[in-house]
TrEMBL record:
It comes from Jannaschia helgolandensis. Pfam families: M20_dimer, Peptidase_M20. It comes from the Bacteria. Keywords: Hydrolase, Manganese, Metal-binding. Residues 183-275 form the Peptidase M20 dimerisation domain. This is Amidohydrolase. InterPro entries: Amidohydrolase, Bact_exopeptidase_dim_dom, Peptidase_M20, Peptidase_M20_dimer.
Amino acid sequence: MDRLSNSDLSTLIALRRDLHARPEVSGAEEKTAARIADVLSWIGADQVVTDLGGHGVAGIFLGAAPGPTVLLRCELDALPIEEVGTPDWRSTVPGTGHLCGHDGHMVTMLGVGQMLARTRPAKGRVVLMFQPAEEDGSGAIAVCDDPAYAPLTPDWAFAQHNEPEIPRGVAHVPVGLASAPSVGLRVAITGVEAHACAPEDGLSPAVAMADLMTALPALSRGPFPADDFRLVTLTHARLGEPAFGIAPGRGEVMVTCRTTSDASLTDLVALVRGRVAMVTDGTGLSVEITEHDHFLAGMNHPEAARILHSASEAAGLKTMAGDPLRASEDFGRFGHDCPAAMLLLGAGPGPALHNPDYDFDDDLIAPGAALLLGAARAITG
């Protein structure tokens, strides 16, 4: 029977809270991954694949007959943020916390695994993908580029993410754009340091930096999710050394660029690079621009979204088409290989994702597992 018992849920909640207390950031999820692999083996997965794209883990449940492959995906990584909440299971790792709910997503997926182990798919197979490094956008690409992923390539892919801004009991299932593409740009500017008593002997990047800190965010326009939406967010700036005797010769500005399509993101990056050149050309300063944390657009295929919509209703949730996430989510890479969709599962009201006092709501485990399993069953039986 496709149902988690009270005993199942108690075990999953205990595991979730223990994972919450032992977070690991993107690319460093070694212990978390090992634990997930052990639990998948204990549950009875037919095959467990490890070290996918780093520390990724896949649990495979085979059907009785040949058929399609359905991939259900969750995330392993935590955030480099100090947790200030006060639960008994608060983070024991300084400066690191499961403040996005990935601990809850993992145990929800393990709940799906428990039900699949009791009743295997009628045909095909279900792959439970525990993906590393979602928070910096590198994990999904690394997993899909790993040669060990090729035999697992799905015909359908689904995911869910808790969302405190949506009321509990509600699932938002966007059609089309589900999450915005984004990329971080680091603009490093180099001049020449000088003594503070004679700044004219050096070349300071201060004026150029000040101009960029206003000029780059000014490139933003339009409401989200309009086609012409673009957002440039200043996220960090640093000038010189923290000393009174040195006129600065180095600085950096970091911005995040965000749009509603991969093509428009490429255009925005070119626009930012052009604006940097306008500000710095002829100044004698040297400039290096590097790209980081590149997230592809998450696109919900109409038929995949319909399957998630139906599965959510069968799980007792109120469903809505919903707006896409203005935040980025690297699940979009899986949709390059097959029809894919991700829904937002209401967790509100409460602290927002990435807030230092955020904690996953354990009451979301049962409906989250039910809707993901329902999506898989709709295809594999």
